[in-house]
Design the sequence.
């Protein structure tokens, strides 16, 4: 963004005008006016959260955060300058908050950019726009300001940001919109930012949606590593997909509460036949737990009430960079799985080749296929 | 002298919405509503396994995944010829109902309330309630820390509750802001309740073609009911009371009628009370030309046949014009002359229709709601229902559902041990059609599937916000939001707060509204209507 000092002056004028319009009580005028005349000096890290080809699901998931709560984060911990779904400002006043924050960054008050949703690059970026751009266009004989593309926003904001956090599977890896990239050019944030500012740190948070703990935890880790919160500047450890190692290191299958059923060869086939004593394994219903790295099974969702497998449904692998396109069909058993110490495929050859190391899925699932007759009355494997 | 105001981003809604209004003499004389984001969800469903539809379409929107997943399941049930077990019917009702409450609470407090309340007034709280004093001190600290962002800058207006010279006082503002904070917990609890059956939110997993995945038990039904009872008390004592408070603020009396969308209302209905889905708690029906005392009750099949979508002013090729959704086409054409939105313009028999809580409540005509609108003086000619009645209808639905859900939970408890799934849902026919039409929090939602060769040949959705936020159609009729804006008072063009209030009263969801309908290649002309 250009003209930082000018923007700052503009900001001061704006702040004075706002305070006057507010008609604040006498006691408060000095405080709030002061607040507006000096860009936030609270020391709370500033956050700009923008949305591209998103569904707002990761924002809604963020609202489910518990410890810390959203109210605590927004009022006490962070200075959220822009969030399109929650902020008070609209139109020019919303955009003003971004401009102020960028101006502040030019004066040594850094901000973190959160991006939800990938960036469409086809048609000059016009598959996603917000805010008003330069110049005008004519619609039905009326001259109105141009749209401003999400890509243009990233061009401006990414270089100014202390770090960029791609929140959720589609911002991080393309996700669902990425499956239609041939039309819109949906591009993962890290890939796009690389072209804008090659050295910029982009941190990915997987999940469709991201778990509030994954997102808030990653933000906190990022802020600490940037020195914006106390606790050990510089220590940010990301995996090969650019994610925090804290949340995406464990295989669902290895930690699943239904692993005993898998080991016993008890697979759910008919939802009416659930056994309360031994929760049946979802592998035959297409569970992607054997190829999905995330801590859902121990962290659980929505205040730990449940998680996907807990509801008698398969894991769909939504935290994986390959979701959705490469994990479909979601309800068909995985055909070929290769894991350290575990290998399987849907046919005998795969099992034989795997030999003695074929434990886990290979051993148990194929054992059922080869050695046991399928029970006729769908009594869930029959072994007890 | 007319002046055009372009508002973008229109925040505190879902997604990317731009509103342009032409203002003359302090009132809106014309309006344009533009959805500005496109993904093409249905395109990527083509050739996929039909069961994937529910998982993919619920990701159309993170605010309304529940109703998309539910509509998709109904469409697949229909296509596979499922007889839905009673327990599955009840669990789908309970989860949908819990999400209605979640969505309505979120909408009023977190999306709309900052248009009416001055949160900064909290710092001036004078009362002696300890929780409110704590809140006051937090806001004073925000000021002391010189960080009022999130609340400022904003559109300024002389009629925010609690600000000096405005309606109410700081103590009322403080109470409302404390309810905003409580509402964060309450909406979270409503989502927790439905995840008891559905695993997680957003992006839940608990419904599949043929039924649901979690059996009712004493434990899970009790846990659900306990949360509902807590929610019921809060909805009655807080949400509903706050709506009554806001609706009676003298400064807002004009907003009772201002924002009327033109008098056409459509509801598909929701919450099946019998296995066939004939009898519904929220009934199917429509109102034409403001004739609210003469609700029409066509069947949903008949309604479905009358839907066409215009793309005259949408960024799609002219070949997509005027088709029924089941034969719909969508080929993007950016830069098309006089087009200004990614939304199409669905019309019923050529008419724009408002959908959502107000439409449902006017169709339902439940005595409690009708006596409220009567009390507010709205049952006198001309019959107009504007910004505040939409909020009132939403809150009233939350009251109705909060009372109903514990009853349905008891019914479910009585069915413990019964089936939850019809295995027929897993038998994918070579070729079949299905439709799922159901009202979600934002209004009438339809999903249509055409299965070909055991995979998805065509999948399409016609979504509530597409009805409400649609651009003009080929005949030049404005969409309901556009119509509702015309005539609205805008005393200060730099702070068009009433425009934002009006648009938000529809609870728009743009991610839902923009969708692609895959061109039908195989000459399918007729959907089997069951």
Sequence:
């Amino acid at each position: 963004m250009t003209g930082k000092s000018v923007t700052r002056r503009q900001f001061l004028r704006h702040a004075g005008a706002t305070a006057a319009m507010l008609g604040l009580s006498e006691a408060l005028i000095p405080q709030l006016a002061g607040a507006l005349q000096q860009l936030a000096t609270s020391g709370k890290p500033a956050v700009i959260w923008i949305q591209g080809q998103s569904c707002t699901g990761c924002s809604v998931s963020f609202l489910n955060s518990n410890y810390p709560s959203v109210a605590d984060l927004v009022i006490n911990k962070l200075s959220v300058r822009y969030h399109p779904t929650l902020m008070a400002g609209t139109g020019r006043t919303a955009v003003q908050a971004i401009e102020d924050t960028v101006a502040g960054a030019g004066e040594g008050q850094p901000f973190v950019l959160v991006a939800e949703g990938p960036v469409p690059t086809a048609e000059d970026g016009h598959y996603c726009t917000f805010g008003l751009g330069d110049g005008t266009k004519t619609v039905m004989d009326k001259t109105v300001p141009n749209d401003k593309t999400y890509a243009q926003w990233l061009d401006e904001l990414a270089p100014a940001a202390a770090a960029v956090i791609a929140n959720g599977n589609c911002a991080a890896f393309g996700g669902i919109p990425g499956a239609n990239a041939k039309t819109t050019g949906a591009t993962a944030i890290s890939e796009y930012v690389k072209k804008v500012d090659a050295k910029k740190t982009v941190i990915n948070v997987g999940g469709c949606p991201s778990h509030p703990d994954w997102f808030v935890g990653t933000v906190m880790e990022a802020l600490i590593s940037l020195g914006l919160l106390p606790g050990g500047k510089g220590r940010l450890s990301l995996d090969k997909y650019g994610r925090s190692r804290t949340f995406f290191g464990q295989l669902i299958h290895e930690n699943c509460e239904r692993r005993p059923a898998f080991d016993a060869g008890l697979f759910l086939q008919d939802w009416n036949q659930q056994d309360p004593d031994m929760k049946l394994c979802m592998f035959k219903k297409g569970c992607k737990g054997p190829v999905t790295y995330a801590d859902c099974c121990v962290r659980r969702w929505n205040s730990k009430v449940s998680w996907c497998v807990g509801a008698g449904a398969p894991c769909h692998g939504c935290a994986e960079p390959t979701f959705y396109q490469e994990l479909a069909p979601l309800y068909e058993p995985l055909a070929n799985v290769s894991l350290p110490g575990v290998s399987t495929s849907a046919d005998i050859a795969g099992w034989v080749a795997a030999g003695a190391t074929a434990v886990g899925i290979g051993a148990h699932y194929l054992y059922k296929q080869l050695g046991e007759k399928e029970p006729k009355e769908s009594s869930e494997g029959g072994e007890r | 002298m007319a002046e055009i105001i372009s508002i973008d981003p229109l925040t505190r809604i879902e997604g990317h919405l731009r509103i342009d209004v032409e203002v003359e003499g302090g009132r809106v004389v014309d309006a344009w509503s533009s959805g500005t984001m496109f993904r093409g969800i249905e395109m990527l469903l083509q050739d996929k396994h039909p069961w994937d539809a529910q998982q993919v379409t619920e990701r159309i929107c993170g605010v309304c995944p529940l109703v998309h997943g539910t509509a998709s399941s109904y469409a697949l049930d229909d296509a596979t010829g499922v007889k839905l077990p009673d327990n599955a019917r009840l669990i789908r009702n309970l989860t949908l109902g819990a999400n209605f409450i979640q969505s309505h609470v979120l909408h009023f407090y977190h999306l709309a309330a900052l248009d009416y309340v001055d949160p900064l007034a909290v710092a001036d709280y004078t009362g002696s309630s300890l929780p409110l004093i704590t809140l006051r001190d937090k806001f004073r600290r925000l000021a002391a820390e010189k960080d009022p962002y999130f609340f400022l800058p904003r559109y300024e207006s002389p009629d925010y509750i609690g600000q000096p010279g405005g309606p109410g006082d700081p103590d009322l503002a403080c109470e409302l802001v404390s309810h905003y904070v409580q509402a964060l917990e309450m909406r979270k609890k409503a989502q927790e309740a439905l995840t008891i059956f559905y695993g997680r939110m957003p992006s839940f997993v608990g419904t599949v073609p043929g039924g649901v995945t979690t059996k009712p038990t004493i434990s899970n039904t009790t846990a659900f009911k306990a949360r509902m009872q807590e929610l019921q008390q809060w909805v009655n004592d807080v949400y509903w009371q706050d709506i009554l408070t806001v609706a009676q603020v003298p400064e807002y009396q004009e907003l009772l009628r201002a924002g009327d969308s033109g008098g056409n209302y459509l509801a598909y209905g929701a919450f099946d009370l019998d296995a066939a889905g004939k009898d519904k708690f929220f009934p199917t029906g429509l109102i034409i030309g403001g004739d609210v005392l003469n609700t029409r009750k066509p069947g949903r099949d008949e309604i479905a046949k009358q839907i066409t979508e215009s793309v005259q002013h949408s960024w799609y090729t002219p070949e997509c014009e005027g088709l029924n959704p089941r034969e719909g086409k969508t080929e993007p054409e950016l830069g098309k002359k006089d087009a200004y939105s990614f939304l199409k313009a669905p019309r019923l028999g050529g008419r724009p229709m408002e959908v959502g809580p107000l439409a449902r409540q006017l169709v339902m005509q439940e005595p409690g709601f009708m006596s409220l609108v009567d009390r507010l003086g709205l049952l006198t000619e001309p019959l107009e229902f504007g910004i505040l009645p939409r909020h009132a209808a939403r809150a009233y639905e939350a009251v109705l559902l909060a009372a109903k859900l514990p009853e349905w939970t008891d019914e479910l408890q009585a069915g413990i041990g019964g089936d939850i799934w019809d295995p027929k849902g897993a038998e994918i026919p070579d070729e079949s059609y299905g439709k799922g039409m159901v009202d979600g929090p934002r209004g009438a939602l339809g999903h249509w599937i055409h299965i070909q060769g055991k995979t998805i040949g065509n999948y399409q959705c016609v979504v509530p916000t597409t009805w409400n936020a649609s651009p003009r159609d080929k005949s030049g009729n404005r969409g309901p939001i556009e119509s509702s804006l015309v005539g609205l008072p805008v005393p200060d063009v730099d702070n068009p707060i009433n425009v934002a209030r009006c648009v938000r009263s529809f609870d728009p969801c743009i991610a839902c509204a923009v969708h692609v309908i895959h061109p039908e290649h195989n000459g399918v002309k007729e959907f089997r209507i069951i």
In short: Chain B touches chain A through 104 residues (CB under 8 Å). The first strand of chain B starts at residue 3 and ends at 7. Chain B is about 35% helix and 15% strand. The longest helix of chain B spans residues 218-247.
